[in-house]
Amino acid sequence: SGVIIVLISGLAFMVYQSNRYVKRVNSQLSDAKVTIEAQHHTLSNKQAILDEEVKKKRSELQIALERLQDVNKELDGFIYSTAHNIRGPLAVLNGMCNYIQDTLEDKDVLQSVYAVDQTIEKVNTIINRLLVINKIYNSRISVSQIHFHLILDNILLVANKLYPFKVEVDKSIQQDLYLLSDPDLIQVILSNLIHNSFKNIDSNKPDPTIKIRIAQEGNFINMMVSDNGTGINHVQPGDLQGFFVSPTNNESTTGLGLYIVKKSVEKLNGRSFWYSKDGYTSFEVIIPSTLEAA
Asked: I need a surface site. Which of 12, 97, 175, 262 has the fewest CB within 10 A?
């Protein structure tokens, strides 16, 4: 019986110790629960404050976005109306210059009129670029069949007025090619590339030449304009440069035309690049032969 009493006593002690441990653990768990609940309450309050702040910022951003959209609409309207208001008087001046050139024979007067006519063409070019930049960023694509011969004839007619030096223009257009795209953007791309080549022509060279190649390669149209003018600063092929950065050696150019080309090509889901080879600087544009209206 003594052994049984010892065993019972030992068992009772173990139960007592176990109960104490359980109570201590329960107390710690209770304290942890209180701490967690307090932290949760604090976090909930902070989350509520943060949600309210985010909601406020979203509201402010929405208001700012609506204001920006209104400003952009006003700016678009201003650019469009101003450009067309300027074009009217310029057309009158251009007509007067043409009339004087056709009727007078005084060389001094004709030279002055010719200078005015060149200035008119330059202003028209600036206006067109403003309208193009506006269209690139804000307008939808307008799709129709492209007639390259007509576009090139118009571009070269203007270029010959602006750059009255002798240059051979060697153009080749694939006869059976078909391009369905935005005619305004195609006009802008070719116009800027061709004018860029005219600007970079070295009139002191024996055979200043501009080459224009347009051909279809599968589902894509390849447009390339090359010149043997002042050249390019880099020899490795590369993407067209950014805004106001000109890759050519001609300091009179700003690179705005090439920036417009780059953005116009991107608008048409195409790609553009340049390279130098055999004394020619080439600017190449590849765009889909069929473009869906946006």
From this structure: 175
